[in-house]
Amino acid sequence: MRDYTNLVRVGVVSAVKQDELTVRVHFPQFDNMVSDWLKVLQHPSSYSVSLYENHNHTVSYRYWMPKVNDLVLVAYTPGFSVDGYVLGVIP
């Protein structure tokens, strides 16, 4: 029988790699364990552009990332795995 305990955890962001959309998370309740680099889930980007004659507009968007010291919810995959994902920030 698989052990599904501790698949969802609450921790504190300790480091951020903005360009890779990953973070490391500190889990004080698990002997101060620090995660490997975890991917941060993103909402799909959406934008709309209206084009008018003689107008050029640049469209840009940014990914959302938690900050160091943010409290986050993390889900790990079942089994003996270090693969996890940050689901979001807990306000």
Short structural summary:
The protein has 91 residues and is mainly β. The chain contains no helices and six strands. It has a single domain, classed as OB fold (Dihydrolipoamide Acetyltransferase, E2P), CATH 2.40.50.230.
What does this structure look like?
By secondary structure, the protein is mainly beta. The protein has a single domain (1-42, 62-91), classed as Beta Barrel (OB fold (Dihydrolipoamide Acetyltransferase, E2P)), CATH 2.40.50. The chain has no helices and 6 strands. It has strands at residues 8-17, 22-27, 33-34, 38-40, 71-76, 84-89. Strands 1-2-4-6-5 form a 5-stranded mixed β-barrel. The chain is elongated, with a radius of gyration of 18 Å. It starts with 7 loop residues before the first strand and ends with a strand. The model has no long low-confidence stretch (mean pLDDT 86).
The third-level CATH topology is OB fold (Dihydrolipoamide Acetyltransferase, E2P)
* Alpha carbon gyration radius: 18 Å
**Backbone shape:** elongated
Please report the number of helical segments.
0
Oligomer category:
single chain
Mean pLDDT: 86
The helix/strand class is mainly beta
Sequence stretches where pLDDT stays below 50 over 5 or more residues? none
CATH top level? Mainly Beta
Corresponding CATH architecture: Beta Barrel
Annotated CATH homologous superfamily: Gp5 N-terminal domain
When the domains are counted, the total is 1
Helix content, binned percent: under 10%
What keywords describe this structure?
91 residues, mainly beta, OB fold (Dihydrolipoamide Acetyltransferase, E2P), 5-stranded mixed β-barrel, 6 strands, 36% strand
